[in-house]
Amino acid sequence: QKEVEQNSGPLSVPEGAIASLNCTYSDRGSQSFFWYRQYSGKSPELIMSIYSNGDKEDGRFTAQLNKASQYVSLLIRDSQPSDSATYLCAVNKGPGGSYIPTFGRGTSLIVHP
Amino acid sequence: NAGVTQTPKFQVLKTGQSMTLQCAQDMNHNSMYWYRQDPGMGLRLIYYSASEGTTDKGEVPNGYNVSRLNKREFSLRLESAAPSQTSVYFCASSEYRTATIYGYTFGSGTRLTVV
After folding, report:
1. In 10 A of CB A76, how many CB atoms?
2. Which secondary structure element, helix H or strand E, spans residue B37, and what is its range?
3. Of A51, A88, A100, which has the smallest distance from its Cβ to B101's Cβ?
4. Could you read off the pLDDT of A31-57 as tens digits, one per residue?
């Protein structure tokens, strides 16, 4: 079992819809969780971080963390064509473990007009 | 606000040639990292430097060496390039103690082809 798993997609949603991206992880000791956005041919860019159970909102983005079920999700409201990219989930074990995050392989999102 | 600067952006090498990828950050971060990204494989850690003066192997260190020249600069060297090292290479930096909160800042990448 991979440590951090994401559906590779592509996930296709119409403009204006909510895009829901999911990530599961295997290490119950994980403490910090990140979402990166990567446009084609570009480098990853950090868009959200979360480390407590529940929701964290930033503009059109909401990260959701459920440690009991070992998943983290990213919701993008009012999706725009400019949101079309690959979204990488990264998980840190934090204190007591390595500070180096483990990355998922990413989910490709396509927002069509 | 340059962030993390990588050079070169593109490079073509012949098998057996050597080269050094340069990385510099101006955010006063303690930790720096080198990743490679291949289709279907995601980001894989090659080497990292938690702080100036230290370096450690990551998931795929074979065929590479690194040097943490000072707090700002972290270079990656390919001593004898092989076609399997064809990839996109990213340098990243972070605050080590707070890496679990702030995440990484990535450079723009180096696209390397070994023929």
Report:
1. 23
2. strand B31-38
3. A51
4. 889 999 999 999 999 999 998 999 999
